[in-house]
Design a protein that fits this description.
With 115 residues, this protein is mainly β. It has strands at 2-6, 9-12, 17-24, 33-38, 45-50, 57-59, 67-72, 77-82, 91-99, 102-105, 109-114. The chain is built from no helices and eleven strands.
Length: 115
């Protein structure tokens, strides 16, 4: 399993970013996918998840209404569109696959939101 996240960067508060995650090494269309984040000095936390078909999504309360998770099964990609960013969104964002074989993480992409 390989999960390659990209798209992070420095953005001002109120701005937007779109993260992308390229997946390989498994039957992508069979599994739900998620995004997590870890701020400096804090534990990794759930951000959003999308079902295998993309028909259902779930969000942490802290990002609900501002972030949108989506996927393109043909391209084996997962996206996280982030809007109205706030400094508290600053973190390393990780793409995640959890299935019966294990819990897999990408290398993470850093998002920094300046006030």
């Amino acid at each position: 399993v390989q999960l390659q996240a990209c798209g992070g960067g420095l953005v001002q508060a109120g701005g937007s970013l779109r993260l992308s995650c390229a997946a390989s090494g498994f039957a992508f269309g069979d599994y739900g996918m998620g995004w997590f984040r870890q701020a400096s000095g804090k534990e990794r936390e759930f951000v959003a998840t999308v079902t295998w078909s993309g028909s259902s999504t779930y969000y942490a309360d802290s990002v609900n209404g501002r972030f949108t998770i989506s996927r393109d099964n043909a391209k084996r990609m997962v996206y996280l569109q982030m809007r109205a960013l706030i400094p508290e969104d600053t973190a390393v964002y990780y793409c995640n696959l959890r299935n019966r074989y294990g819990n897999y993480w990408g290398q993470g992409t850093l998002v920094t939101v300046s006030s």
